[in-house]
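Recap quiz, item 2
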Amino acid sequence: MLNQNSIWRYLMIVVVLSVALIYALPNIYPNDPSLQISGTRGAEVSAEKVTVLEQALTAQNIAFKSVVLNKGQILARFNNTEDQLKAREVVSTALGEDVVSALNMAPATPAWLDAIGAAPMKLGLDLRGGVHFLMEVDMKTAMDKNINDLVQVYRTDLREVKIRYRSVTADLVNQRVVIAFRNAEDVAAAKAALSKKDADMVYTEADDNSLVVTFSEARMKALREDAVAQNITIIRNRVNAIGVAEPLVQRQGAERIVVQLPGIQDTARAKEILGATATLEFRLVDETADVQSAVSGRVPPSSQLFNDRAGNPVVLQKRIMLTGNHIVGANTSFDENGRPQVNIDLDAKGGSTFSNLTKDAIGKSMATVFIEYKPTDKKDANGKTIMQKNEEVVSVATIQARLGRSFRITGLDAPGEAQNLAVLLRAGALIAPILIVEERTVGPSLGQENIDLGLSAIMWGMISVLGFMVIYYKWFGVVANIALTANLVLLIGVMSMIPGATLTLPGMAGIVLTVGMAVDANVLIFERIREELAEGRSAVHAIHEGYNRAFATIADSNITTLLVALILFGIGTGPVKGFAVTLALGIITSIFTAVVVSRLIVNMIWGQRRGTSLPV
Amino acid sequence: MRLFNFKTSLNFMKLKWPAIIFSTFLIIGSLVSLFTQGLNLGLDFTGGTVIEVKFEQAADLNKVRSALGSSGFPDAQVQYFGNSQEVMIRIAPREGVEQKAIGEQILTSINTVAETPVTVRKVDIVGSSVGDELKEDGFLAILAALVGILIYVAARFEWRYSVGAVASLLHDVIITLGLFSVFQLEFDLTVLAAILALIGYSINDTIVVFDRIREMFRKLRDATVEETVNEAITSTLSRTTMTSFTTALTLIVLFFMGGAMIHGFATALLFGIAIGTYSSIYMASSIAVILGASREDLLPTVIEKEGEGTAAL
């Protein structure tokens, strides 16, 4: 029989729509003003701090909804923004310097929804306010440094294999190294020797008895990858230090990094922190000095007092063995005993200096000092933020042997500590500086206004289309309206479920447009049913043919639109990407609701109707 | 309720040459405008700085301009944005000056003429290299969309229809760009998105007509090509106008309620949908007919894949 709904169809639709409804639900709960408190440099906040904070808040008569520790971060919710701001001051006095707090709007999703992973849609910066930076890694500088290093490396390497050269020069304009020799035999010998050592470079013999060394494609790519990855790590660290609730640090294209800091209004400060310089120094521990007397002020003239991360005093020699800009790489692995270690690679110059200095220092302790310039809240007479120098001993290790270009720091307690040290070591040596090429700031009031505008546009768009459909298609119009409403729920549910989908103002425009275009499928079907009826078919056949015949057209015409949406997604950034996402998802959900859902209802009500009339 | 209920088909093909001449005029006009005065490209494409501030009282644009002029920004474009309290200031990219300093300098300068300090609503700073890339990417995206559609329609129908469809899409894009050029409306990234959405929308209409032409070829065995096309367009006319109408309805809502950021987007789509509906009716099929589309081109494919009567509206 025609126009029968199978039980499976009911089941499928009920399941799909209820799942969508449940996942769309969190969007209707308002957000709580809250504070997100995390440890500096990604450290975890201890459980005791929750109690400390609760007591401090109670002492100050600040009402709070809850204070919860989750994934090493404390989330404190408040009833209003006033309490939230007051609480922020309490946090810094009560919990000390090693935590950062960020103002946030935490979704007040009920526990049962939270438990199944339902969360509201992510809002783009244009809706929640904040700063967006697009940064570009300056590869030219990175390459220049590499080429200069290579000059040193080749001089040493050629001396080792006893091939005489006239000169090794860096040609920064063409990004290559030129090595001049006395005769052609030396060129060939050098080429063989060097390519055995480093096969990743391209060696070309030139006519004037010289060897030209250039980077291979693979090496260029590796350098770029490293530079970008390293910058991302550094930026993440710094963003954590600023205290931003849900920061986004993401790679875009070959050499760019997107940084989004929702809720941050003070761009100048954000830029200072992101651009802050961090360096690293290796110094010998002054083992002759007495730590106790140093703490009380009697530091030997050739030494200086430092603190390690736990706040314990360490006396180090004033002389710096090596600075962090000689570090070219640092990663973690495990030693023979399965304990974590950090492997460090130095550039050629750093390697030889280090080798000379450590020769006489075997058995002594060497400290790694991390130096960071952090902006303070104070400003100088010219209105520039005063930068505060922070020095911290991040590791103390015993020198086991004469160290060269590659060495390792062992004796670390936990893999996490090794990771952290490696990150700090890398951060101390920014291979490629970054430039800000785009900056967008959206004020918080504008964000809220955009949300209001978008919501009212969606509402009025819906109302006008719903009204029109009823006037034009009568009871079938009501069915189309049910499908359209289901489409909106489905779209919002899917948008909330997909982690990468972000709602932006153009995205909201996309939803409005989807509302207008989603009825198209139903229009196609209803017009077809009208035609079938006009040709004298029975109601049963008209419905059957109407849906079947219209489907190929609906599929054809929507595939092309989907194609366009995908292209849009590919080129767009930020808000426009949001538009592409809603457009593409809207097409898919609207086909489902207009074809499957509306058919279910039509079959149910008019599927077996006798005669040749339908309320369409 | 029913808008169109024709007993006999309308003769659209009779108007094919007048329509083509009319469209050619529009296209030439648009191209002339595009080449002589170009587009008023937004910040996304040119690079530079845009700042939106809100004054407590209605702002005096002349005062703001002169204040900016004396602080070294004589080229600043100052205009109201939405209402008389909100002001948008746009400055072309500066070579050699640190971008980040500009925003602060402008604010200091504006605050000298404001009675109470202004609230910053939005600051956008875009490097000129980013803008140049976006121009290139945008052009490539439109091209990619058209080529994709060309291939898809050629595979599903036939090359004559494919050329007709893409020619009418190009027609829509050029004339919409022409509108933005003639009236010097700001062309930003959202407008580019609107143009791409328009391509997706306009091809919808065209494919619905093509699908119907294929079906009519099968049904009307004795009719000429032109009669068949007329019949197909007439019987889909109701749907074409209905969908355009509901889409236009939501766009009108967006235009009036979506805020200043969405204005360009809504304008481009609203105009584009009007022109796209016209081109789907008059251009796409006419070009296919002029190129010599015939019954035989479409029918073999139909028989192959139409076993279950999936022929469409």
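The longest strand of chain B covers residues 83-91.
The beta strands of chain B are 40-41, 48-54, 77-81, 83-91, 119-126, 186-187.
End of item.
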